[in-house]
Design a protein that fits this description.
The complex is a heterodimer.
Chain A lengths: L11 H26 L1 H24 L8 H14 L3 E8 L4 E6 L45 E5 L8 E9 L1 H56 L3 E6 L5 E5 L3 H5 L11 H4 L6 H10 L5 E9 L5 E12 L5 E10 L1 H23 L3 E6 L4 E4 L1 H7 L3 H4 L13 H8 L4 E8 L5 E12 L5 E10 L1 H67 L4 H13 L2 H33 L7 E3 L1 H11 L1 H4 L3 E6 L7 E3 L1 H26 L3 E10 L2 E8 L29 H13 L2 E7 L3 E9 L6
Chain B lengths: L1 E7 L2 H10 L7 E7 L1 H10 L4 E4 L8 H11 L4 E6 L4 H7 L5 E4 L4 H13 L7 H9 L7 H12 L5 H8 L3 H12 L12 H8 L1 H9 L11 H27 L4 H13 L2 H9 L1 H10 L8 H8 L3 H11 L4 H8 L14 H11 L1
Parallel strand pairs in B: 1-2, 1-3, 3-4, 4-5
Helix pairs in contact in B: 3-4, 7-8, 8-10, 9-10, 12-13, 12-14, 12-19, 13-18, 13-19, 14-15, 14-17, 15-16, 17-18, 18-19
C-alpha cells in the first residue's frame, strides 16, 4: 500500500535482462563472425563438393566410374558441372598424373581480360590449361582474371579404399570469389561492428542508466522533500468498484492525525466526513465523471475530535479501457481559510446587522451622489425601500444638500446640523444630520456617509421635558406654596372666628344701646339704663374689641390678599402661555415667580428687587421664561442656604432688570459661595449637578440655557467669585413683535 | 390655671390665635412668643403645661425647640402646629412632638386637642413616671418582629400592606404608627385604630425613612430578662388581640369597633412594656411581689408605682393622641365598672379576651 511515487525506470530484473541480452547477443555475433571467417575454405569445399557431386552423379548415371569413364563422359560431366553453377567458369578433370582428361568451360571464358585494368583488379596468376590433343579443350588459355582454382580429388567408387584417380579443378569467377570474400568480410565487419557496438553500448547504457538513476534519485529526493514540506496530502483511490483508498501520503499524520494505513479500511473515509458534508462529498464524486479536475470542500474529523475543512483537488485517471480507474487527489487543510471566510462572512453580516439595527438612517453615497448603502432605519425613516434607491441617485429628501455643503464635504469637512427632510409620502421629518466624507486607500474622498437621526421624538420629548420640568418645579413649589397659603388661611380663620364671637358679645351691648336710644326718644334715659349699657360694654370688653376688631379685619384682608396674590402668581407662573413669542411685562412675570418660590428663599435670604420701571414689553415665551427665572432664583437660594447653614445669618438675592439698547438684561445675584473654577465650564451641561441625589435633576441650568439661547436667541452668562457669590445674566433681544 | 405657650415666627398667626381663643381666656393662661428665642426666654420665667409651636422658623426650628423643651421641661406636653409640607422637617418632629396639628387648623380641633391634653394634668401619677412618659418617643419592639420588619423593608418591592401586617403584630410599633397617623405628622390627621391602614396611609417611603431615622423603631438591647419579657408581652398581646377580634366579630360589632377591639387587645399591656423598659428594677420588684391571687399584678404595681400598667399605657396613648376608645379600653381593662360604657365596646372585647387568655 505504502509507496513513494517514482519516475519510470527499469526494475532490477529488467536491467539484468537487458545486460544479459547484450552480452549474449555479442557472443552470438562473435561466434557467427568466427564461423564466417572460415568461409573461404568452406566455399571452396562447397564448390568442390558440388563439382564432385556432379561428377559423382555423372558417374552414378553412367554407371561408369570416373576412372573408367571415357573422356566424353568426363567432359559431359564437366559441362554439366559448369552449367550447374554460374560461378563455375570451367572444370578440368585431370588424371592422377595431372594430365587433363576432360574439361568444360563457359563461353565468355574466351574473352581476354586485360590484366591490371582500371578496376584495379589484380589479376592473379593464370594457369593455362593444356588439354592434350585428344581433348576438345584445347584452349583454355584465355586469361581468366583472378580465377580461383578449388581442387578436388576424384575417387573411384569401385574400390574401397581407392587410390585417387585424378583431380578435378574448378575455375571460379573472380567476382564470385570476391563476392564470397566480401560477403565473408561483411559478415565479419558486421560482427565486428556489433561487437564493438556491444562493447560500447553496454557501458553507455550502464552510464546512462546511472545518470538516469541519479536524476531519478535527485527528482525523488526533491519530490519527497516537496511532499514532506507540502501541506497537501497526496492520495489515490481505486474507483473501479467500491471506491477504496490505495495510497495516502505520510503527511496525513500532520494534517489529520491519522496513519495512512488507517485509510485502507473501506468506510474510514466516509465515516469521518462531517455528516452534513457527506451527501455533498458523494455528489462531488459523481460529478467527477464529467469533469477533469475537480475541487471540493468538506469537513473531516481530525483525530483530536475536531472537524477540519479539507479542500480536495482530484482528478480521474482513466484505465486501459478508458473508464475511470483511479482517482488521484491532493488534500489541503483549509480550515483556517474557511474559518476566516466564515468569520469574514459573519463579520460582514454582523456589520450589516449593526448598520441595519442602528436607529440612525445610514446612507452612503458615491461622489456622483449614487446611493451605495441604505439601511433599514433609512427605509423606516424616509419610506423608500433599499431596492428602490440603491444604485440610483439619492431621492429628493429635501431641497437637496446645498452645493456649499456638498463642496465642504468633498473638501473633507464633517457636517452636523439639524433640519427638515421629506419622506416618500411627502410628510416632513425633523432630523439631525451628520455627514462626513469617506476616503479611499489613497486618501482621496470617494464618497459621503450621511446619518440621519429622527428628531421628532426628541423634539416632542424636549417639549415634554420642559413641561415636566415645570410640573416638577410646581410640585416642589406646592409644598412651599401650601405653607405660604396655609399661614394666612390659619389667621384669617382665627380672626373670623374671633369676629364671630366678638359680634355675639357686641349684640348684648347693642341691645343695651337700643334700650337707651328708645328711652331717649321717649325723653327719659334712666340711670338704670345707663348702668345696663356700662355693664354690657364692660362685659363685651368694648375697649379691647374696638381696638382689636379693626386689626382682625385688616389682618384678615391682608391674609386674603396674600392668598389671592399667591394663587394669582401660581396661575401666572404655571399657565402654559402661548407657544410663540409674546410681549410680556417681564417685571411682573419675575415678581410673580419670586413670590411663587418665596418659601424656597425666605428662610435664607432677603429678596431685593430693582426693576427698571421703563422696561418695554419683552418678546418672550412667558411660561418658559418664568421657569428660567424660577430655576435661577431657587439656585441662588440654595447657594446661599449652603453658606447660611455653615455661618448662620441670612444672605441676599438681588434680582434686577434693565434695558440695554436693543436688549433687556435680567441679573440674578446671590451671596452664595460662588461656583468653583473646576466646574464653571460644566454649569450648563445637562444632568450636571452638585446637589445630592434626589435634590436636583441637574436640568435646571441646562434648561435655562436652552430656553434663553435657542428659543429666545438671547444669551445667558454668569460671573462668579468664590466666597462672594454668583450673578447670572440673561440678555434677551428686544426685536419688534408684530402686533 | 392651665398654662399654654404658643410659638410662631408670624405674629399674625399669634394674633389670630389669641383672638380665636379669647373665649377661653378665663380658663387658659396663654402666652404668645414670636419665634423660638422669645419662647425660650418666656419659658425661663414661667412654667407651662403645654407648648404649641410652628415648625419652620428662621432662627430655630420647632423640632429643635421641642427637643430643648423635652430636655429642660420634660413635664410639658409638646404639640406642633405647622403648615409645612416639608417631609424632612416633619420627620424631625416624630420623636420630639407628642402631637402634630396642620395649618390651617380649625379652632375646634385646636381647642379640643389642647383641652384633651390638659386633661392629662388631672391624671395622678408619680412625677418620675409622668416625666418618663412625656420623654418617650417610641418603645422597643419584640426582637423577632423587629427583625422581620427590618428584613421586609430591605425588599425593594414590599407593599405597605405587608409592612402593616408586620407592624400589627407588635404593640410598640403599632402604638407609634397610630400616634403618627392619628396626629398630622405626615399630612392631614386621620382617625384610625387599624395599624395596617395606618401603615398604608403613611406609605412605604415614609416607613423606610422612619426605620432609617435612629431609634424610632428599635429593639431592646438591655438586660436579657427584659428582652424575654418584651417577647412574652408581645406574644400575649397578639393572643389577646386575636381573641378580642374574635369576640367583637361574634358580637357583630361594626368595623370601627372591631378595629378598636383588636388594637386595644394588642396594646392593652403597653403600660407593662413602659414600666419594664424604663423602670426595670422597680418592675422586677413588682414581678417578685406579685402573688398568685394577683394574676395581673395590679396590687403589686400599685404598691411599687402607685398606679397600674393600665393607667400608664392609657396615659401614653392619650398623650400621643390615639383615639379615646382605645385609650379607654386600655385604661379600664381591669375595671370595667369605672367606665360608664353601656353598649358593647372595645373595652368589653378586651376584658373578655384577657379573661379567657
Amino acid at each position: 500500500m505504502r509507496q513513494v511515487p517514482r519516475p519510470r525506470r527499469p526494475s532490477p530484473p529488467a536491467r539484468l535482462l537487458f545486460g544479459t541480452t547484450i552480452v549474449v547477443g555479442a557472443s552470438v555475433l562473435g561466434l557467427v563472425a568466427a564461423f564466417l571467417l572460415r568461409q573461404e575454405s568452406v566455399i571452396h569445399r562447397q564448390y568442390e563438393l558440388r563439382a564432385e557431386a556432379s561428377a559423382n552423379a555423372i558417374a552414378r548415371e553412367s554407371q561408369f566410374a570416373l576412372l573408367v569413364g571415357d573422356a566424353a563422359d568426363l567432359k559431359r560431366m564437366a559441362e554439366v558441372a559448369v552449367a550447374g553453377s554460374e560461378d563455375v567458369l570451367y572444370m578440368v578433370v585431370e588424371d592422377a598424373s595431372g594430365a587433363p582428361i576432360a574439361a568444360a568451360h563457359r563461353a565468355p571464358l574466351t574473352a581476354r581480360t586485360v590484366p591490371g585494368g582500371a578496376g584495379g583488379v589484380k589479376t592473379s596468376a593464370t594457369r593455362f590449361l593444356k588439354i592434350g590433343p585428344n581433348s576438345d579443350i584445347d584452349c583454355i588459355e584465355a586469361s581468366v582474371p583472378a580465377v580461383a582454382q578449388p581442387e578436388g580429388e576424384i575417387f573411384s567408387r569401385r574400390s574401397d579404399p581407392q587410390p585417387a584417380l585424378g583431380r578435378i579443378r574448378l575455375g571460379m569467377s573472380i567476382q564470385a570469389r570476391r563476392a564470397m570474400l566480401v560477403s565473408s568480410m561483411r559478415y565479419a565487419a558486421a560482427i565486428g561492428v556489433l561487437i564493438i557496438l556491444g562493447a560500447c553500448v553496454v557501458p553507455y547504457f550502464q552510464l546512462r542508466q546511472k545518470r538516469v538513476e541519479a536524476k531519478f534519485r535527485e527528482a525523488e529526493e526533491r519530490l519527497s522533500f516537496l511532499v514532506s514540506l507540502s501541506p497537501a496530502v497526496l492520495y489515490s483511490c481505486d474507483c473501479r468498484h467500491q471506491p477504496r483508498m490505495t495510497f495516502v501520503a505520510d503527511n496525513i499524520r500532520q494534517v489529520l492525525g491519522y496513519d495512512p494505513e488507517e485509510f485502507a479500511e473501506a468506510e474510514f473515509f466516509r465515516s469521518h466526513l462531517h455528516p452534513e458534508d457527506r451527501p455533498r462529498a458523494e455528489t462531488m464524486l459523481e460529478e467527477m465523471q464529467h469533469s477533469d479536475l475537480h475541487i471540493g470542500e468538506y469537513r473531516f474529523l481530525h483525530r483530536d475530535g475536531k472537524y477540519r475543512w479539507m479542500q480536495d483537488h482530484r482528478k480521474i485517471v482513466p484505465g486501459a479501457s478508458g473508464r475511470p480507474a483511479q482517482l488521484v487527489g491532493l488534500l489541503f487543510d483549509v480550515t483556517e481559510k474557511m474559518e476566516a471566510a466564515v468569520a469574514l462572512r459573519k463579520a460582514h453580516q454582523d456589520l450589516r446587522a449593526v448598520i441595519d439595527t442602528s436607529p440612525l438612517a445610514i446612507v452612503a453615497l458615491d461622489l456622483p451622489g449614487i446611493v451605495q448603502n441604505w439601511n433599514l432605519a433609512a427605509e423606516r425613516m424616509f419610506g423608500w425601500r433599499g431596492d428602490e434607491v440603491l444604485g440610483r441617485p439619492l431621492p429628493d429628501l429635501s431641497d437637496g444638500l446645498p452645493d456649499d455643503r456638498l463642496r465642504r464635504l468633498k473638501d473633507g469637512e464633517t457636517l452636523v446640523f439639524e433640519g427638515r427632510r421629506k419622506q416618500k409620502d411627502g410628510r416632513p421629518l425633523e432630523v439631525g444630520v451628520w455627514a462626513a466624507p469617506f476616503h479611499g486607500a489613497d486618501g482621496a474622498v470617494t464618497g459621503i456617509l450621511v446619518e440621519y437621526a429622527d428628531l421628532s421624538e426628541r423634539k416632542l420629548l424636549e417639549a415634554q421635558l420642559r413641561q415636566a420640568q415645570k410640573l416638577e418645579s410646581i410640585g416642589q413649589l406646592a409644598a412651599g406654596l401650601a405653607h405660604e397659603i396655609n399661614t394666612p388661611i390659619q389667621y384669617v380663620g382665627d380672626n373670623t372666628r374671633f369676629l364671630d364671637e366678638a359680634f355675639r358679645e357686641l349684640a348684648g351691648l347693642f341691645e343695651a344701646y337700643e334700650g337707651v336710644v328708645g328711652a331717649a326718644s321717649n325723653g327719659g334715659v334712666t340711670p338704670d339704663l345707663l348702668d345696663k349699657v356700662n355693664q354690657a360694654s364692660e362685659k363685651a370688653d368694648i375697649v379691647y374689641l374696638r381696638a382689636e376688631i379693626p386689626k382682625a379685619i385688616e389682618q384678615s384682608l391682608e391674609g386674603l390678599a396674600r392668598v389671592a396674590q399667591i394663587v394669582r402668581a401660581m396661575k401666572e407662573f404655571s399657565h402654559p402661555g402661548p407657544a410663540e413669542l409674546t410681549a410680556v411685562d417681564l417685571n411682573r412675570a419675575i415678581e410673580s415667580t419670586i413670590l411663587v418660590c418665596r418659601n424656597e428663599w425666605k428662610y435664607v435670604a432677603e429678596m431685593v428687587t430693582e426693576f427698571d420701571a421703563g422696561l418695554p414689553l419683552v418678546p418672550c415665551l412667558p411660561g418658559e421664561m418664568n421657569q428660567v427665572i424660577l430655576n435661577l432664583v431657587v439656585n441662588a437660594a440654595q447657594a446661599i442656604s449652603d453658606v447660611v447653614k455653615q455661618r448662620g445669618g441670612i444672605g441676599t438675592i438681588k434680582v434686577s432688570t434693565r434695558r440695554d439698547g436693543g436688549w433687556v438684561e435680567v441679573r440674578i445675584q446671590d451671596t452664595g459661595a460662588g461656583i468653583p473654577a473646576a466646574i464653571r465650564t460644566r454649569v450648563f451641561d445637562p444632568f450636571f449637578t452638585t446637589k445630592e441625589v434626589g435634590k436636583g435633576t441637574g436640568q435646571g441650568l441646562a434648561l435655562a440655557h436652552s430656553v434663553v439661547v435657542q428659543r429666545h436667541q438671547g444669551s445667558i452668562t454668569f460671573e462668579t467669585e468664590e466666597g462672594l457669590g454668583t450673578v447670572f445674566i440673561i440678555r434677551l433681544p428686544l426685536t419688534e413683535i408684530d402686533s | 390655671m392651665k398654662r399654654i405657650l404658643f410659638v410662631d415666627d408670624d405674629s399674625k398667626i399669634l394674633d389670630g390665635l389669641r383672638r380665636s381663643l379669647r373665649a377661653l381666656r378665663f380658663e387658659w393662661e396663654m402666652e404668645f412668643a414670636v419665634g423660638a428665642p422669645a419662647a425660650i426666654a418666656i419659658l425661663l420665667r414661667k412654667q407651662f403645661d403645654i407648648i404649641v409651636t410652628d415648625m419652620r422658623m428662621p432662627d430655630m426650628s420647632g423640632a429643635d425647640l421641642l427637643a430643648e423643651v423635652a430636655h429642660r421641661y420634660p413635664q410639658m406636653i409638646r404639640i406642633i402646629l405647622s403648615g409645612t409640607w416639608n417631609e424632612d422637617l416633619r420627620m424631625q418632629a416624630v420623636m420630639t412632638a407628642h402631637q402634630y396639628l396642620s395649618k390651617p387648623c380649625d379652632p375646634e380641633t385646636l381647642r379640643s386637642t389642647i383641652g384633651r391634653a390638659f386633661a392629662l394634668r388631672e391624671v395622678r401619677l408619680q412625677p418620675a413616671i409622668k416625666e418618663q412618659l412625656m420623654r418617650i418617643g417610641s418603645l422597643p419592639s419584640a426582637p423577632l418582629v423587629y427583625q422581620e420588619f427590618a428584613l421586609a423593608l430591605r425588599s425593594p418591592d414590599i407593599s405597605a400592606r405587608a409592612i402593616g401586617a408586620i407592624v400589627a403584630k407588635d404593640p410598640a410599633m403599632t402604638a407609634k404608627v397610630l400616634q403618627l397617623v392619628n396626629s398630622a405628622f405626615f399630612g392631614v390627621c386621620r382617625r384610625t385604630a387599624n395599624p395596617v391602614e395606618a401603615v398604608v396611609y403613611l406609605g412605604v417611603d415614609v416607613m423606610r425613612a422612619l426605620a432609617q431615622s435612629a431609634s424610632i423603631f428599635s429593639t431592646f438591647d438591655g438586660a436579657q430578662s427584659t428582652r424575654s419579657l418584651i417577647a412574652a408581652l408581645q406574644e400575649h398581646s397578639m393572643s389577646v388581640a386575636m381573641k378580642a377580634g374574635a369576640v367583637a366579630r361574634a358580637m357583630n360589632a361594626s368595623k370601627l369597633i372591631l378595629d378598636d377591639a383588636i388594637v386595644a387587645g394588642l396594646l392593652h399591656d403597653l403600660g407593662k412594656l413602659v414600666l419594664a423598659v424604663h423602670f426595670p428594677s422597680e418592675y422586677d420588684r413588682v414581678l417578685a411581689t406579685a402573688s398568685a391571687t394577683d394574676p395581673e399584678q395590679l396590687d403589686a404595681e400599685r404598691s411599687v408605682f402607685e398606679t397600674t400598667h393600665a393607667e400608664v399605657g392609657g396615659y401614653l396613648l392619650w398623650l400621643w393622641g390615639v383615639p379615646d376608645s382605645i385609650v379607654e379600653a386600655l385604661t379600664f381593662h381591669h375595671g370595667p365598672a369605672q367606665s360608664g360604657a353601656q353598649d358593647f365596646s372595645p373595652l368589653a372585647a378586651v376584658r373578655a379576651a384577657e379573661v379567657s387568655d
